[in-house]
Structures are given as structure tokens and as C-alpha cells.
TrEMBL record:
Keyword entries, A-Z: Signal
Species whose genome carries this gene: Lachnellula suecica
Protein name: Non-heme chloroperoxidase
Lineage: Eukaryota, Fungi, Dikarya, Ascomycota, Pezizomycotina
Residue stretches making up the AB hydrolase-1 domain: 59-293
UniProt cross-references to InterPro entries, sorted A to Z: AB_hydrolase, AB_hydrolase_1, AB_hydrolase_fold
Alphabetized SUPFAM superfamilies for the sequence: alpha/beta-Hydrolases
Signal peptide: 1-19
Gene3D superfamilies for the chain: alpha/beta hydrolase
Length: 311
């Protein structure tokens, strides 16, 4: 077959590409759907991340809760990815598919790791979304690195401003609660990581709950994938870090979503205080909702995220 004949045969395809169909946006160089994507931080820790959806869409970056990983955001990532957004989520150091360093298991380092990812992907105009510990990571990231790349933030069932009880935080949970977490982990981490999702995390210990064994198993699997020291030290990071100044410094709109039946991060010591510290905060209280809003109130959270990002 001659070159001209080949060209003629292919003409219909060319017109398809240029005309009757929306050609996909150009794909950034780093975007590789075949390799497991990692970035390496200053101390050599490898951070795994997912980069889904429309590579040219506005970016939404998700930070997961303790002791989970980016898988826990898949309902929101699938939804917003299908709405045309670029949806990105990493596994925090020591969690999921990231390395398990013995050091740096604290909020400042978590925030610095996330900055490495932001710079690697060179993303701007980002909406950051954090759940629980991830909400602390979002607050510390913004307090420590500023909002130049970020236009909005969402804190879902999040730990800020500070969980642990003290003279200046009387509504907080006593340190004995977190010491007990550590003790349970030390005795039998596998059993503790079964008891948390079977009980308070999803609200499955409530009489009228619809229990999902799949969610319990997924939580356990993600939890056990995290390193021991990493999930152990993260308890201090999420309970004792004071995010008050981070929240006060924020000059961007922040949506705060929290359930009144959150048995992990009680709303009285978190969202109700956080909203007073934020300059441009909006509080959405989910009546009777448990801690696991991203898993239990999927459609409601998805709609609230979409509305907030578009607003
Ligand atoms: C950020 O994205 C929104 C929504 O796509 C757009 O309206 C806005 O102009 C963008 N802002 C900047 C600074 O790029
Ligand atoms: C569970 O029961 C309580 C008390 O009757 C009620 O307030 C709440 O709305 C119920 N929750 C669900 C998810 O049905
Ligand atoms: C948290 O930090 C703020 C100042 O940023 C301080 O006023 C407050 O006392 C601190 N709270 C606790 C419990 O350490």
C-alpha cells in the first residue's frame, strides 16, 4: 500500500480527532498511569500518591485520616474525577504504600512532605480536603507553607485546633484516652485495629447503624499496612499538635464539616472551636453523623464538596 493510500484511509480518523469528539487535554510529563507514582522527600522517604481524573482539571488534593491511606478517599476521588477535576491523594509517610521511616512522624514533617508533592506536580489553585488527622495536615501545611498554591480548604471531622485536654483546652479529651490507644496498639495492634472500625469510627456501635463488614475489613487492611511506629507516633501528632495559629492565619475560604455523633473527634472540641478561629469559615453540621463521613455519608459529602469548590 502506498503512503498516499494509507493517508486516505486514515483521513476519517483525523477528522474524528479534530472535530466530532473532545480530544483529551494534553497530558503533563509526569503523568504516567502505568508506573506507581512516588516522590522522594529530603530525608529519602518515598511518598506514594494517586493522580486521577482530568490532568488539565482544577486540582483537588486529599489528606487521609489515621491510620489509613489515600484509599479511604476513593468515593470522593471517583466522584470529583468524574466531574472533570484532577484528584490527587498521597499516603502519608509511614502509611499505605509510602516508606516507613523511623523519624519525622510529626505534623511539621507531614506538611513538608506534602509540599514536596505540590512542587513536584507544580499544582496551583488547589482545593485541599482533609479528614481527621488529614485535616490537621491541611491546617499545618497552610500555616507553615502559606496559601500561594491553594484557593480553598475543607476540614472533614478534623482534629484542629487541638484534641488533648489541658487547662487552656478544658473540652478536650484527657491524655489517658490517647495513652490507652498506644497501650492497645502495643498489646495487640491487629485486634485494636479491628475494634476501632467495628465500634466508634463508623458509628457501628450505635443501635440503629447499618453495619458494613466491607468497611470494617477495608479499615483494618489499610491500618495494618501502616508501619507500627508510624501509626503509633501519629497518635501524638493528631492529638497534641496545636493548630490554633494555623487556623487563625488562613486567608482563604474554609469549609468545616463535622457530625454531631463523632465518637473519635468530638465536635465540641474541634469544629465548634475551629470555626471561631477561621476568618472565612463555613460550618456544615451533619446531624447524628459519625466520624467516618467520607465513607458513611458519601453522596452528601460529595455534593457539599462540589458545591463548595464551584462557589
Ligand atoms: C481557580 O479555578 C477556578 C475554577 O476553575 C477559576 O474560576 C479561577 O479563575 C482560578 N483561579 C486562578 C487564580 O487560577
Ligand atoms: C439513630 O437513632 C437516633 C435516636 O433514635 C436518631 O436520632 C438518629 O437519627 C438515628 N440515626 C440514623 C442514622 O438513622
Ligand atoms: C495553642 O496555641 C495558642 C496560640 O497559638 C495558645 O493561645 C493556646 O494556649 C494553645 N493551646 C494549647 C492547649 O496549648
Amino acid at each position: 500500500m502506498t503512503f498516499t493510500a494509507l493517508l486516505l484511509l486514515c483521513l476519517p480518523c483525523l477528522s474524528l480527532v479534530s472535530g466530532n469528539y473532545n480530544s483529551p487535554p494534553s497530558v503533563p510529563r509526569h503523568y504516567n498511569t502505568h508506573k506507581m507514582p512516588y516522590v522522594t522527600t529530603k530525608d529519602g522517604t518515598e511518598i506514594y500518591y494517586k493522580d486521577w481524573g482530568n490532568p488539565a482539571g482544577q486540582p483537588v488534593v486529599f489528606s487521609h485520616g489515621w491510620p489509613l491511606n489515600s484509599d479511604n478517599w476513593e468515593n470522593q476521588m471517583f466522584f470529583l474525577g468524574s466531574e472533570g477535576y484532577r484528584v490527587i491523594a498521597h499516603d502519608r509517610r509511614g502509611h499505605g504504600r509510602s516508606s516507613q521511616p523511623w523519624t519525622g512522624n510529626d505534623m511539621d514533617t507531614y506538611a513538608d512532605d506534602l509540599l514536596v508533592l505540590f512542587e513536584h506536580l507544580d499544582i496551583k489553585n488547589v482545593t485541599m480536603v482533609g479528614h481527621s488527622t488529614g485535616g490537621g495536615e491541611v491546617a499545618r501545611f497552610l500555616g507553615r507553607h502559606g496559601t500561594s498554591r491553594v484557593s480553598k480548604a475543607v476540614l472533614v471531622s478534623s482534629v484542629p485546633p487541638i484534641m488533648v485536654q489541658s487547662a487552656s483546652n478544658p473540652e478536650g479529651l484527657p491524655i489517658s484516652v490517647f495513652d490507652n490507644f498506644r497501650e492497645e496498639m502495643r498489646k495487640n495492634r491487629a485486634q485494636f485495629f479491628l475494634d476501632v472500625p467495628t465500634g466508634p469510627f463508623f458509628g457501628f456501635n450505635r443501635p440503629n447503624a447499618t453495619v458494613s463488614q466491607g468497611l470494617i475489613d477495608s479499615w483494618w487492611q489499610q491500618g495494618m499496612q501502616a508501619g507500627f511506629i508510624n501509626s503509633y507516633e501519629c497518635i501524638k501528632a493528631f492529638s497534641e499538635t496545636n493548630f490554633t495559629a494555623d487556623l487563625q492565619s488562613l486567608d482563604i475560604p474554609v469549609l468545616v464539616v463535622h457530625g454531631t455523633d463523632d465518637q473519635i473527634v468530638p465536635i465540641v472540641d474541634s469544629a465548634y472551636i475551629a470555626i471561631k478561629l477561621l476568618k472565612h469559615g463555613t460550618l456544615k453540621v451533619y446531624q447524628d453523623a459519625p466520624h467516618a463521613i467520607p465513607n458513611i455519608l458519601v453522596d452528601r459529602l460529595n455534593q457539599d464538596l462540589l458545591e463548595f469548590i464551584k462557589s
